[in-house]
Design brief:
Strand content: 25-35%
Distance between the termini: 80 Å
Number of strands: 16
CATH superfamily of the largest domain: Tetratricopeptide repeat domain
Largest sheet: 5 strands, mixed
Structural class: alpha+beta
Radius of gyration: 37 Å
CATH class of the largest domain: Mainly Alpha
Helix content: 25-40%
Number of domains: 3
Strand order of the largest sheet: 11-8-14-15-16
């Protein structure tokens, strides 16, 4: 027996009401996230020790030392708030480009742990340091070369973007195994991009060897006859076996050390007595044009230009901006 139409509609309405209009049970609102503990409480072990040491150094004005301690505390704990302490220290040694890089890292890594006030303060400091930063459009003919600014590695070639460096005189080095190192110190102005094209030359380890002997004497270098009397040529750096001989004379033999880009001179006199062997009565051996006397021995001199040291820091008005730390 079929239900009457009014009953059928009542059943349909009941099902629709139960499936569509029924409301789920109310749930309690989520509790707000608890504020992170202060760094002094949140850090433990090695990170806490480095953090506390960094505060002492910062208070004493040793900002370079504070950078090392705060950075180590961050590397151990990964608490992004420590980056602010590193930034405050870097600013005080006028490392504006480094501070800019760390500020971007701080904002990216901070997440929910940073308040809106923290982010606003970081953005304001970003705007403040940018006028003190220069850019270098560096092009190098060799890939995978190490780039250093003021002896700190900043990347490998090819670089994806211009280098951002502190304005003023900067020492730029480019190095790669098997190539001669490029180094230049020049001043870079903020607000513009300075092009710097670098061609690394293949490193050749060689010097010059000069031998002066009696006109009739035969000269052998590493077992090969190279000339008579006087001979000079480029040879590979390192030790070379030298032999000078002549009819009716005692043969002279010795090893000579040739250094990169240096001239080594041998002045050889042969002794009468063809029946005996040994060393000559005298020989002068010179390195880099400086002579020293000896029997079968040599004096070698390697001259290097004096190291002028890193350039002085460029003063900036930001030195008066005091940054709080120890959040």
């Amino acid at each position: 027996m079929k239900p009457s139409p009014p009953l059928a509609w009542a059943l349909c309405f009941f099902l629709l009401e139960g499936s569509v209009f029924a409301q789920p049970a109310e749930t309690a609102p989520a509790a707000p996230a608890a504020a992170p503990a202060p760094l002094a409480e949140a850090l433990t072990g090695e990170a806490k020790e480095s953090y506390e040491a960094g505060k002492v150094l910062y208070g004493d004005g040793d900002y370079a030392g504070a950078v090392l301690k705060f950075q180590h505390a961050y590397d151990v704990s990964k608490d992004p708030r420590l980056l602010w302490n590193v930034i405050a220290s870097e600013k005080n040694v006028r490392h504006y480009a480094r501070a800019e890089k760390l500020l971007n890292e701080y904002l990216a890594a901070g997440g929910a742990i940073l308040t809106e006030s923290d982010r606003a303060e970081a953005q304001a400091l970003l705007e403040a340091v940018r006028p003190f930063i220069a850019e270098i459009a560096l092009k190098v003919n060799e890939p995978e070369a190490t780039v250093l600014v003021d002896d700190v590695e900043v990347g490998r070639t090819p670089l994806a973007a211009p280098l951002r460096v502190d304005m003023g005189p900067r020492k730029v080095r480019v190095a790669k195994a098997g190539f001669r190192e490029f180094s230049v110190t020049q001043s870079f102005a903020s607000g513009s991009v300075t092009p710097l094209d670098v061609t690394l030359a293949v490193e050749v380890h060689e010097g010059r060897l000069r031998i002066s002997a009696p006109a009739e004497a035969t000269i052998r270098v590493d077992g090969k006859i190279v000339g008579k009397g006087e001979w000079e040529a480029k040879v590979g750096s390192g030790a070379h076996s030298i032999e000078v001989s002549a009819d009716g004379k005692e043969t002279w033999r010795a090893d000579s050390l040739v250094r990169d880009d240096q001239l080594t001179t041998l002045l050889v006199s042969l002794k009468d007595n063809p029946s005996s062997g040994g060393v000559p009565s005298w020989v002068w051996i010179a390195g880099g044009g400086v002579l020293a006397a000896g029997l079968g021995t040599g004096a070698y001199f390697l001259f290097k230009p004096a190291d002028k040291g890193p350039p002085a820091a460029t003063p900036g008005t930001l030195a008066t901006w005091e940054l709080p730390f120890g959040r």
